[in-house]
């Protein structure tokens, strides 16, 4: 009987040891598996990191390339639009100048008129002179005045076979001695263009033939005296009148009617010889 009890205790003890052993093994295995999984996951993340960066960099590069191409395309479109706008503005300006020349031609009855294009103008002498594509072969002479924008802008200075040099009114050293007529009410006062005030942007007239009153706003036209015999071409309006120190002479400053800065087409005007 005692022997049977001992065997029973041994069996129970064995079972307990077995259960505890299984429990311990299971717990340790789970911990080992967990740690192994964490290690593998860490290695996987480390290995994948460069590939993820490369993939992201490739994607960013693709976006940058598309953005650059779109930007270049927009630049080309903008350039084309500006080019077309500038061309439209140029044509509009030229058409307006042609319209003004036609109006002026209709007013110059009995006057010799030769239409011409500006073919050369240098930056260094922009306000002094320009060259047109009409010369002696087209009937141009050195006593012709030059009209653009509805008013006088200069006179023919030099004539070649198929071109002519125009001396502009804005030339500060104007020596052409063009005669003008200042209209003050029913009175006319004649004078000579003697130069151009660059600081004030005003034409200078002197050598007046009369002491009659002259007021701001009086109209000034060509007088038709001397070498340049075309008359009544608009020149501008009186801006101010000044006296010399001895009060014997007066100088009239005139705001020009026409701006010759962007002139493209002109008319050469003179009375038939």
Short description:
The protein is built from one helix and twelve strands. With 273 residues, it is of the alpha+beta class. It folds into two domains: 1-107; 110-273, Beta Barrel (Thrombin, subunit H), CATH 2.40.10.
Kindly state the number of beta strands.
12
Provide the CATH topology of the largest domain: Thrombin, subunit H
How many DSSP helices?
Answer: 1
- Mean pLDDT, rounded to whole units? 80
Q: How much is the radius of gyration in Å?
A: 48 Å
Q: What is the domain tally?
A: 2
Strand content: 25-35%
CATH class of the largest domain, named Mainly Beta
Question: Which oligomerization state do the chains in this entry correspond to?
Answer: single chain
Describe this entry's structure for a reader.
- There is one protein chain.
- The protein has one helix and twelve strands, in the order αββββββββββββ.
- The protein is of the alpha+beta class and 273 residues long.
- It has two domains: 1-107; 110-273, Rod shape-determining protein MreC, domain 2 (Thrombin, subunit H), CATH 2.40.10.
- The protein has a six-stranded antiparallel β-barrel with strand order 1-2-5-4-3-12. A six-stranded antiparallel barrel has the order 6-7-8-11-10-9.
- It is rod-shaped, with a radius of gyration of 48 Å.
- It starts with a helix and ends with a strand.
- 22% of the residues are buried.
How do the strands and helices of this protein lay out in sequence?
Blueprint: H1 2-107, E1 112-120, E2 129-132, E3 145-148, E4 151-159, E5 164-168, E6 179-184, E7 187-197, E8 202-206, E9 219-223, E10 231-243, E11 250-256, E12 265-270
Antiparallel strand pairs: 1-2, 1-12, 2-5, 3-4, 3-12, 4-5, 6-7, 6-9, 7-8, 8-11, 9-10, 10-11
């Amino acid at each position: 009987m005692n022997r049977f009890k001992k065997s029973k205790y041994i069996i129970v003890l064995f079972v307990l040891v077995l259960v505890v052993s299984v429990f311990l093994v299971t717990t340790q295995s789970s911990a080992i598996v967990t740690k192994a999984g964490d290690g593998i996951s860490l290695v996987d993340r480390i290995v994948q990191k460069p590939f993820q960066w490369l993939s992201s960099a490739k994607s960013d590069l693709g976006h940058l390339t598309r953005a650059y191409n779109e930007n270049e395309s927009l630049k080309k479109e903008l350039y084309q639009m500006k080019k077309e706008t500038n061309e439209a503005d140029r044509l509009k300006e030229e058409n307006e100048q042609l319209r003004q020349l036609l109006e002026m031609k209709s007013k110059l009855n009995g006057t010799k008129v030769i239409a011409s294009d500006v073919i050369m103008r240098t930056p260094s002498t922009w306000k002094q002179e320009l060259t047109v594509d009409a010369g002696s072969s087209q009937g141009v002479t050195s006593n012709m005045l030059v009209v653009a924008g509805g008013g006088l802008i200069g006179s023919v200075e030099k004539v070649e076979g198929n071109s002519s040099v125009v001396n502009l009114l804005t030339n500060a050293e104007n020596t052409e001695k063009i005669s003008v007529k200042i209209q003050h009410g029913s009175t006319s006062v004649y004078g000579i263009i003697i130069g151009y005030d660059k600081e004030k942007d005003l034409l200078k007239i002197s050598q007046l033939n009369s002491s009659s009153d002259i007021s701001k706003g009086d109209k000034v036209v060509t007088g038709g005296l001397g070498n340049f015999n075309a008359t009544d071409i608009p020149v501008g309006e009186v801006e101010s009148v000044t006296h010399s120190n001895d009060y014997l002479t007066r100088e009239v400053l005139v705001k020009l009617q026409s701006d010759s800065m962007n002139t493209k087409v002109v008319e050469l005007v003179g009375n038939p010889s």
